[in-house]
Amino acid sequence: MNEYQFTEDFRVTDEIKRKFDEDGYIILRSVLSEKETSILTSAVENEEGVIKYMYGHDDGDGRKIKMCLWNHPGNDVSGMLARCEKIAGTMEQLLGGEVYHYHSKLIMKEAHTGGQFNWHQDYGYWYKNGCLFPDMGSVTIAIDKSDRENGCLQIIPGSQKLGRIDHVIIGGQTGADMERVKLVMEALPLVYVTLNPGDALYFHSNVLHRSDQNRSGRRRWAIICTYNRASNNPVLEHHHPFYTPMTKVPNSAIGNCQQLLNMEEKDFMHPDRDKTTVSSLLA
Q1: d(CA 48, CA 53)
Q2: Which residues does residue 9 pair with via DSSP β-bridges, in sequence order?
Q3: Quick count: other Cβ atoms within 10 Å of Cβ 178?
Q4: pTM surpassing 0.85?
Q5: Fewer CB within 10 Å of terminal CB in the chain, N or C?
Q6: Residue 272: count of CB within 10 angstroms of its CB
Q7: pLDDT tens, position by position, 148-168
Q8: Cα 192 to Cα 37: distance, rounded to the nearest angstrom
Q9: Is there a domain that residue 282 lies in?
Q10: Which residues contact 258 (CB under 8 A, 6 or more apart)?
Q11: By the 8 A CB rule, do 137 and 227 touch?
Q12: How many domains does the chain have?
């Protein structure tokens, strides 16, 4: 199993690192406490917070995916989340070296209307940004319960070993070549990643993943914190940061954050800046 229960003395052991290298992911249950999850939820739901910068992608099947994205963590509670040891420090251990914050985003799949994400590798995007190596990874932290009914993440364990698959524009997204994906799915298993609020999925940038539309009566919101190895500084000018040293904070910084809605220094993405997708602003 690739699932572990978070405790304050959690560390990435040799066995956990081996599982991550073999399958491309681990799940860490209850990485956020109920208090921390409640604080984070209240902050991201506030109209003066990150959702002021929301925009949308066409999912290629008649619906939109709502999100907001920022390049630098900042000093609000989402910044404390992205910089804390149990998120950023764990990713450093999994990727094998110093990381910096590449970007974070809030994904909002609303009840009955939330769009799908097509099959893709994150490195399918980031390759085009001048990141020479796939020494990158993301942490998806569930704000709401995430299951098959409301369009949870689906991953193909071991697919990070395939290398980068060709990607093309599908609707408003960059998606993996589906002929190749079909062949991969004949050889490798499919996992539906079910998460409770406060659970986290850590996954490698070359893991193939997707999610269905949300046709349920429950929303599915999640924050995704993405990291790049410091040694993998991009070689092309693009819309995400070059290496920027990141000051990590203790885990207690989430619950103790006094600047819940400080949007300074975050550098929010305007969709016109992203050349790897076709985006549209939402009113």
Answers
A1: 10
A2: none
A3: 13
A4: yes
A5: C
A6: 11
A7: 999 999 999 999 999 999 887
A8: 22
A9: no
A10: none
A11: yes
A12: 1
